[in-house]
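Title: Comparing notes on inverse folding

I've been comparing how different people in this forum approach sequence design from structure. To keep things fair, I'm posting one structure and asking everyone to reply with a full sequence. Here's the target:
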C-alpha cells in the first residue's frame, strides 16, 4: 500500500498492526529444540536451493549460491541427499552473454550484462593477475602474456587449467624472434582429443606487425612470408580457417592441411580484394579507425570504429561479398566489402581483438537488436598522474545502429582503469 493511502493508519503512511497471539509450545518440544542447537543452512531441504537456483539467470549467481556451503553445493550439482518428491532437476541456464573482464593486479573483476552486476575474480594465481590477456576463446579460455619475459600461456578462468605456449616465433628461414602478442584467436577450446590451434598478431621490427601460428604439440610458432605488408589489425577463426585483416582491409586465410605422411601444415588463401568505393574518403577523414572481424550467420563481417579525440563516435558494419571474377580462369576469388547500413536484423555484436562475437537477440530476454558493444582495447598504455602506466576504460560503450549514437556502458563503470591490461571478454 502506498504512503498516505486509505487505511494506512495515518497521513504519514505508517501502518499499525494488532498483536498476534503466539502458539503455545510444550515443555518437551522446547527442550528438544534447545538440545538440537540453532538452525543451520545444512538443515535446509535440498529442494530449497534448487528452487532458488531456478530463478537465477546468470551462471555467476548460481556459483555464488552453491558456494554458500557444501550441502547447498551438492544439492545444486544434483548430488545431495535423497530428494523429496517435489524436487525437480535444476533447469538449464539460458544462453550466457559474454562477461566483461576488468584486469587488475590487485582486484580483477568481471561484469555480467544479464544481471548488471560486478563480481570479484577470486583465487587467481599471482602471475595470472599480473598477466595481459591477448585474446579470448570459448569455454572461458584466455591467451595470456605472463609477467615473465616473453612468457605466454592458455589459461582457463573456470578450472584454472594452464597450457604453456612457446616464447618465440620463427620465420620461414627458421630465424627466431621474441614473441610480443597484440591479439590472438583460438580455433577451439582445448580439450582431450581436440587439435586446437592459436593464431596471433605479433610485433615485428620497426613497429610493424606480423602473423604467427601455433599448433598443439609444436615447440615454436610459425610466421609465414609476406604478412608484414598487411599492417594487421585483427584475426578470428571462422569456417575452419584463421582470417587476418589489415589496415587496407585485405584479408588472408590460413587453414590446417593434413599431408599424406601425417604432418599438418597451414595452407594460405588470398583473395582478389576490390577496395570499397569510400575507402579513400574514410582514410582521409581524420578519424582513427579500428577494424574487427566477426563471423555472423555464415558470413564474414568487418566492423569499423571511428575514433575522434579518443572517443568512438561512429561504427559501421561491412559484409564480405563475392564479385564476378576479372577473368574466367582467375585463380583468386574476387571479393569486396559491402556496407550493411544501420540494421543488424536481430543481432548484437561484441567487439574485441581476436574474440568478437555475433549473438541473436531472440535468445536473450531484455536485450535489443542492432546494438554493438565495444571495449577500450588499445594496446598502448598511458602515464597516470601518479607516475604509473595504466590502461584507460574511458572509450567503451554500446553503439545503437538504429539511432546512430554511442551510449555509455556499463552505466556504472567500475573500475575506470587498469594497471596491467585493457578489458576483454570472458566467453562461455
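Reply #1:
Here's my take.
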Amino acid at each position: 500500500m502506498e504512503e498516505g493511502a486509505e487505511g494506512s493508519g495515518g497521513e504519514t503512511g505508517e501502518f499499525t498492526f494488532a498483536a498476534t497471539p503466539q502458539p503455545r509450545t510444550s515443555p518437551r518440544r522446547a527442550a528438544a529444540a534447545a538440545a538440537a542447537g540453532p538452525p543451520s543452512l545444512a538443515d535446509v531441504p535440498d529442494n530449497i536451493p534448487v528452487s532458488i537456483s531456478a530463478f537465477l539467470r546468470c551462471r555467476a549467481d548460481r556459483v555464488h549460491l552453491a558456494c554458500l556451503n557444501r550441502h547447498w553445493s551438492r544439492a545444486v550439482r544434483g548430488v545431495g541427499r535423497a530428494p523429496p518428491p517435489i524436487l525437480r532437476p535444476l533447469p538449464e541456464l539460458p544462453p550466457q552473454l559474454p562477461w566483461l573482464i576488468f584486469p587488475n593486479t590487485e582486484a580483477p573483476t568481471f561484469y555480467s550484462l544479464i544481471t548488471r552486476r560486478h563480481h570479484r575474480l577470486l583465487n587467481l594465481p599471482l602471475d595470472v593477475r599480473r598477466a595481459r590477456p591477448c585474446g579470448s576463446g570459448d569455454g572461458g579460455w584466455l591467451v595470456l602474456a605472463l609477467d615473465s619475459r616473453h612468457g605466454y600461456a592458455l589459461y582457463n578462468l573456470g578450472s584454472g587449467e594452464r597450457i604453456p605456449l612457446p616464447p618465440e616465433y620463427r620465420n620461414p628461414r627458421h630465424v627466431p624472434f621474441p614473441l610480443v602478442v597484440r591479439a590472438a584467436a583460438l580455433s577451439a577450446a582445448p580439450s582431450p582429443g581436440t587439435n586446437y590451434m592459436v593464431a596471433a598478431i605479433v610485433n615485428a621490427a620497426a613497429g610493424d606487425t606480423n602473423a604467427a601460428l601455433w599448433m598443439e604439440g609444436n615447440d615454436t610458432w610459425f610466421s609465414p612470408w609476406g604478412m608484414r605488408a598487411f599492417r594487421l589489425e585483427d584475426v578470428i577463426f571462422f569456417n575452419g580457417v584463421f582470417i587476418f585483416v589489415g589496415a587496407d582491409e585485405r584479408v588472408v586465410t590460413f587453414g590446417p592441411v593434413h599431408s599424406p605422411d601425417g604432418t599438418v601444415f597451414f595452407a594460405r588463401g588470398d583473395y582478389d580484394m576490390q577496395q570499397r568505393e569510400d575507402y579513400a574518403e574514410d582514410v582521409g577523414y581524420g578519424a582513427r579507425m579500428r577494424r574487427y572481424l566477426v563471423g555472423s550467420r555464415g558470413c564474414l563481417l568487418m566492423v569499423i570504429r571511428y575514433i575522434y579525440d579518443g572517443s568512438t563516435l561512429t561504427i559501421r558494419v561491412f559484409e564480405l561479398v563475392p564479385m564476378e571474377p576479372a577473368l574466367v580462369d582467375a585463380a583468386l576469388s574476387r571479393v569486396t566489402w559491402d556496407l550493411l547500413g544501420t540494421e543488424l536484423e536481430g543481432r548484437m555484436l561484441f567487439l574485441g581483438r581476436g574474440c568478437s562475437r555475433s549473438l541473436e537477440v531472440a535468445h536473450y530476454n531484455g536485450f535489443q537488436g542492432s546494438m554493438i558493444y565495444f571495449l577500450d582495447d588499445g594496446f598502448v598504455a598511458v602515464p597516470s598522474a601518479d607516475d604509473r602506466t595504466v590502461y584507460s576504460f574511458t572509450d567503451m560503450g554500446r553503439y545503437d545502429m538504429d539511432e546512430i549514437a554511442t551510449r555509455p556502458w556499463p552505466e556504472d563503470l567500475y573500475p575506470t582503469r587498469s594497471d596491467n591490461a585493457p578489458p576483454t571478454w570472458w566467453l562461455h
